[in-house]
């Protein structure tokens, strides 16, 4: 658009700046690693902060690695893996609650799994999407982000699982049949998204696609081999931090709610998604601030599709693993 600021006004990529960010992120993760190794839980509130900060920091590592990988990869299977990696923080916490619900029938863990799932949905649709529009308006004075023809895929695959969700609500449970349907929808979505190429689906912003808006731009200064090594290292470290932090973070939120006299359901519904979704929201906001608002909104739409299909669909599998047999995740009015 004529009102957009040229990408040249964005800060130039810098490996030194990126290294500084890595140091800061590492400093946020180290306390969680120490507490996990020592098995020390000093205080529920402190535990929530320490392990939540580690998950948040790991989420940024994942987002940087995935952002850089998207410049090198277009194959459908790899794109699907990248999409899964970027939402790993939320998956880890929700899977823990769902697994515990299956292992402890009749416990409140089933409510906690639903709380994290619905809270993430509320954060994305209720806060993140309007935030992108607000940032776009502040930058350009346009009151809306214009969708592109290429966004038809995201819109369609937001519509389909949203319609199907009414059937899940009517049944009052997420069953293994729903797992098959939702994972199939996710697979078709990723297959369709992987076929988007320049040409019929291209848009006017493609000329700027080489200008990454975030820290991942620094990785483009490396040789291809070193880029792959860096992306792999970011992913492995982040995944390890998330896996060791998910259980103590999930449990500390429950204990913190009890300690403070808060409803644990509401605390999990609002706090857990903030830690797991913040990196993706920040990346989308950077797209908007760099003059690529449509790309930022498409990122959030893709994140929502991942939640609404793959995450929801895999919860019965986590419950079944905890229970030791095939079962459903029950829903109630909480």
| SSE string, helices as H and strands as E | HHHHHHEHHHHE
Rg, rounded, reads 20 Å
Biggest β-sheet: strands ordered side by side in the sheet = 1-2
Shape: globular
Estimate the mean pLDDT confidence.
80
The low-confidence runs, each spanning 5 or more residues with pLDDT under 50, are 1-9, 75-79, 198-210
Biggest sheet overview: 2 strands, antiparallel
DSSP strand content? under 5%
Helix content: over 70%
| Euclidean distance between termini CA atoms | 45 Å
Helix count, DSSP H or I runs of 4 or more residues:
10
- Total count of strands: 2
Structural class: mainly alpha
Task: Characterize the structure shown.
The protein is mainly alpha-helical and 334 residues long. 72% of the residues lie in helices and 1% in strands. The chain is built from ten helices and two strands, in the order ααααααβααααβ. It has a two-stranded antiparallel ribbon with strand order 1-2. The longest helix is centred in the last third of the chain and has 37 residues.
């Amino acid at each position: 658009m004529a009102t957009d600021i040229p990408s040249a006004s964005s800060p130039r990529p810098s490996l030194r700046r990126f290294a500084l960010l890595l140091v800061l992120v590492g400093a946020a993760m180290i306390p969680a690693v120490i507490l996990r190794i020592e098995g020390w839980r000093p205080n529920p509130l402190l535990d929530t902060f320490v392990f939540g900060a580690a998950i948040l920091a790991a989420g940024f590592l994942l987002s940087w690695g995935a952002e850089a990988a998207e410049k090198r990869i277009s194959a459908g299977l790899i794109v699907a893996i990248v999409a899964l990696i970027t939402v790993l923080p939320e998956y880890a916490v929700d899977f823990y609650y769902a697994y515990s619900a299956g292992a402890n029938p009749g416990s409140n863990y089933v409510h906690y799994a639903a709380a994290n799932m619905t809270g993430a949905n509320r954060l994305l649709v209720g806060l993140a999407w309007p935030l992108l529009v607000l940032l776009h308006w502040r930058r350009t004075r346009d009151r809306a982000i214009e969708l592109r023809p290429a966004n038809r895929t995201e819109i369609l695959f937001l519509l389909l699982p949203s319609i199907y969700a009414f059937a899940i609500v009517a049944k009052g449970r997420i069953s293994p049949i729903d797992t098959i349907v939702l994972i199939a929808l996710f697979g078709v979505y990723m297959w369709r998204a992987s076929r988007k190429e320049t040409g019929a689906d291209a848009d006017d912003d493609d000329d700027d696609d080489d200008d990454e808006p975030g820290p991942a731009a620094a990785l483009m200064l490396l040789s291809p081999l070193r880029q792959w090594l860096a992306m792999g290292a970011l992913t492995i470290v982040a995944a390890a931090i998330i896996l060791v932090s998910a259980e103590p973070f999930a449990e500390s939120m429950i204990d913190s709610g009890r300690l403070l006299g808060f409803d644990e359901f509401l605390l999990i519904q609002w706090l857990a998604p903030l830690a797991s979704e913040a990196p993706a929201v920040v990346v989308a906001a950077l797209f908007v601030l760099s003059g690529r608002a449509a790309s930022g909104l498409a990122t959030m739409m893709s994140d929502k599709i991942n939640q609404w299909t793959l995450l929801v669909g895999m919860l019965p599998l986590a419950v079944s693993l905890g229970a030791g047999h095939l079962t459903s995740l029950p829903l109630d009015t909480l």
